[in-house]
Specification:
This protein is α+β, with helices and mostly antiparallel strands. 48% of the residues lie in helices and 14% in strands.
């Protein structure tokens, strides 16, 4: 790579030269930008230093640093045609082997957070790849906006942006259409020569730590709702953009809360209070039917695969905790414990095999990219068994996950001596046993764990619809033909 390559690569979105992969220091500096974040009625000055936010900020920074470590670069990065080393999260799968490469990178990110963050930056990076893939379809609607999809992808890739999305409406009256309750949905309030002004709100995950936020409503629009059908990227520090955080789980002692102290990605209500969006950041505009058609089957094709990889790691985390609980409790040989572990391992293996099958059965899109086979089965499996994993951890851990003490107890010698005597496990010190049972409780009974479970089970949409998906997409025709032949049926009306 030429020494001056970074000084000559620019984009229409910034005057800063492209840097390629970020490091942790650069990432933290990039989100110190006067963004408007609210928590418990307080406006947060700096999410990198505030005690409720710093755990996640530092965790992300550590992962960005790993991109620069030689032992990880083959997995986490690649060199683009422009000479920049960039994140594998942005790799366009123009070859089938690229799907495995992308999966390994997502697994790496997921392992560093133990599968506990549903919306790491790689998820939305995959969505920008989706926008590039449907470029030709977007061009039929508006060639200029279609160019934006490619330009933005290159900008995000070459600057290694941390992206998040805000796709869903606030939980208001769902019986109303967007046009019947326009303030609920993001909509255009003014159109200008240089862009549009939007108003409304969306739910978001990871927003406090994102550089840009993607707004792509997933609502099934009707033809007479064009003002709501808009896809765009907005900087997290855009004037008028406010993020109001839900109750945060981080900031607690890591001895008692080992996961949430480090990996609370934080959900927010993103309020767009007359926010200006320049045309170059808009990909689709006032095309409701096209938005319905192109989002799930196009934009989300690779993001869904990233989500599956993260779920795989989360399941691995839960079954490992269950195994360690059994071993340290001395109940590892009991039949019901072995059955519970066997059930969890069965589900995990099914998920792994489904991911591999999706890569094996991948097909090339009209946009020239290799796309994993549809993942209806994985979505349905996860929806069905996510809560079951938590139940089985509780089943094995029993009361050991309830009768726990606090870091303050362990710090007091007068109390600690009793804990050392009465709280030790099989081949485990009392403190180690405490840490393990606290972790089990945090992921199954604590508010942090319940949030993770609910997010995992429901983020794909209505649970009953998701469960029905595989049955609707399954090819029954060969089986019907065989049975019809066996029975010598004259005709069948079965579709």
């Amino acid at each position: 790579m030429p020494d001056d390559v970074k000084s000559i690569i620019h984009t229409p979105y910034t005057d800063k030269p492209a840097q390629g992969i970020m490091d942790g220091k650069t990432f933290l500096e990039s989100i110190q930008d006067d963004r408007e974040i609210w928590y418990r009625g307080e406006k947060i000055k700096d999410v990198t230093t505030h005690p409720q936010f710093t755990g996640m900020a530092q965790s992300l920074a550590k992962i960005y640093d790993m991109q620069h470590e030689k032992q990880h670069q083959d997995v986490m990065t690649y060199v683009e045609d422009n000479g920049l080393r960039v994140s594998t999260s942005y790799l366009r799968p123009t070859e089938k082997e690229h799907l495995v490469q992308r999966h390994e990178n997502t697994r790496f990110w997921s392992e560093k957070v133990h599968g506990m963050c549903g919306r790491l930056p790689d998820f939305c990076a995959a969505m920008t790849v989706g926008y590039v893939d449907i470029h030709d379809e977007l061009a039929k609607l508006n060639p200029d906006l279609a160019k934006n999809a490619i330009n933005y992808y290159e900008y995000a890739r070459d600057h290694d942006l941390c992206l998040s999305h805000a796709l869903h409406d606030p939980c208001m009256d769902k019986s109303l259409r967007p046009k019947e309750d326009p303030e609920r949905c993001v909509h255009v309030v003014e159109e200008r020569d240089d862009g549009i002004v939007v108003r409304g709100a969306r739910f978001n995950t990871l927003g406090p730590f994102s550089n840009d936020i993607l707004i792509s409503p997933t609502y099934a629009f009707t033809e007479d709702e064009p003002e709501f059908a808009i896809w765009f990227m907005v900087p997290a520090n855009a004037p008028g953009l406010k993020q109001i955080c839900r109750e945060i789980f981080s900031g607690r002692d890591p001895i008692d809360h080992p996961m949430s102290a480090r990996f609370d990605e934080i959900d927010t209500l993103v309020v767009l209070d007359d926010v200006f969006i320049p045309w170059e950041r808009i990909f689709l505009y006032r095309e409701p039917l096209a938005a319905n058609r192109l989002f799930r089957g196009g934009v989300m094709s690779w993001a869904g695969d990233a989500s599956s990889a993260l779920t795989e790691v989360r399941f691995e985390t839960l079954v490992t905790i269950a195994k360690m609980l059994a071993e340290t409790s001395g109940i590892q040989e009991r039949p019901h414990v072995q059955q519970a572990l066997g059930e969890m391992c069965t589900y995990l293996t099914l998920l792994r095999n489904s991911i591999r099958a999706g890569h094996f059965d991948s097909q090339q899109t009209a946009g020239g990219h290799w796309c994993p086979a549809p993942f209806f089965d994985r979505r349905s499996l996860v929806t069905r068994v996510s809560e079951r994993f938590c139940d089985l951890v509780e089943h094995i851990g029993t009361s050991s996950t309830i009768f726990n003490h606090t870091a303050e107890d362990w710090a007091n010698p007068e109390v600690e001596k009793y804990l050392q005597t009465y709280m030790r496990g099989r081949n485990s010190s009392a403190l180690d046993r405490h840490k393990l049972t606290k972790l089990a409780w945090e992921l199954t009974g604590d508010s942090y764990g319940r949030r993770q479970q609910l997010y995992e089970r429901l983020h794909s949409g209505d649970a009953e619809v998701v469960k029905a998906g595989p049955g609707k997409s399954f090819d029954f025709a060969p089986g019907i033909e065989r049975i019809s032949s066996l029975l010598e049926l004259e005709a069948t009306t079965i579709a």
